[in-house]
Amino acid sequence: MRHLHQCVPQGLSVLGDSPVILDLLAFLVLAVTAVVSAIAALVVRELVHTIIWVALFFVTLAGFYFLVSAPFLGVLQLGVYAGAVTILLLFGVMVTRKRIFAREAATGLGPAPIALALLIVVVLATAASTIPASTTQITEYPVSALSYTLFNQYGAWLLLLGLVMLPALAGAIYLVREGRE
Amino acid sequence: MTDLPLAGFLALSAVLLGVGLFGILTRRNFILLLIAIEVAMNSAILNFVVFGSYWGTVPTHGLEGQSVAVVLVGLAATEVAVGLAIVLALNRLRGSINVAEATVLKL
């Protein structure tokens, strides 16, 4: 049976045969790209540039999913986030501005938000450093195994997601409907 | 693969959460706010997947984390759809998508 793993390019493949150094290098490059693109997306002044940076961020996260042997989730990330959400955000920018490339007014970066964000990072990083390294072997799996887990063990979650999605979509249609004054 | 440090992923996730939080606290544009929320949410989803991969039990190979992540991706996409509907409604009502002008529900 041909698994999805084998369709992934070798550089991103995380099967046992790929060298550890290569994976570590991929992790470092992806991590730096993710952090830089996330910061750039929130700091650049033009909203269209923000969308481009955030698209790069989503693609980088998909790379992480391929790296930790979650190819299905990587493809889902590319399809839902890098595809749909990015286009949806671009659409939002398009219909709400008179000039697409208008610049945002600069907002003052108060010390309090930066301090709070740094505090969260420090607390979480400290907690992360206390977690012992695990030696569990990650084995490749057929995608059917994921669907089995998803639709049996987590079937109720999926139903719940459907229950959330239906009123959310109805509410979205209600909000943007014509004829409101 | 298993030689990749778990703490590295967790630290990265913490940094991304910090970036998202910073964006939520400082940005005044509704679309930028949505993007900041997405960044924070993606860091949480990454945590689910990584924890699942590292501590997965043998019969399911850590697929629990990925199952939760699939549900969360759907939830986040729904949230963006509703958020953009609010952006459009706010733009129609106020002619601007500055969150400071979203005062319709204030007494």
What would you note in describing this structure?
- The complex is a heterodimer of chains A (181) and B (107).
- Chain A folds into two domains: 104 residues, Four Helix Bundle (Hemerythrin (Met), subunit A) (Up-down Bundle); 41 residues.
- Helix content of chain A is 67%, strand content 0%.
- Chain A has six helices and no strands.
- The longest helix of chain A has 26 residues.
- In chain A, 26% of the residues are buried.
- Chain B is an all-alpha fold and 107 residues long.
- Chain B has a single domain, classed as Helix Hairpins (Orthogonal Bundle), CATH 1.10.287.3510.
- Chain B is 74% helix and 0% strand.
- Chain B is elongated.
- Chain B starts with 5 loop residues before the first helix and ends in a 13-residue tail after the last helix.
- In chain B, 54% of the residues are buried.
- The mean pLDDT of chain B is 85.
- Classes of the chains: A mainly alpha (181), B mainly alpha (107).
Named at the architecture level, the CATH assignment of the largest domain in chain A is Up-down Bundle
Secondary structure: helix percent of chain B: over 70%
**CATH fold category name of chain B:** Helix Hairpins
Helix content of chain A: 55-70%
Q: What is the strand content of chain B?
A: under 5%
Radius of gyration of chain A: 21 Å
Whole-number tally of structural domains of chain A: 2
Q: In sequence order, what are the helices and strands of chain B, one letter per element?
A: HHH
Regarding quaternary structure, how should these chains be classified?
heterodimer
Q: Tell me the CATH architecture of chain B.
A: Orthogonal Bundle
Instruction: Give the overall average pLDDT of chain B.
Output: 85
| Beta strand count of chain A | 0
Number of domains of chain B: 1
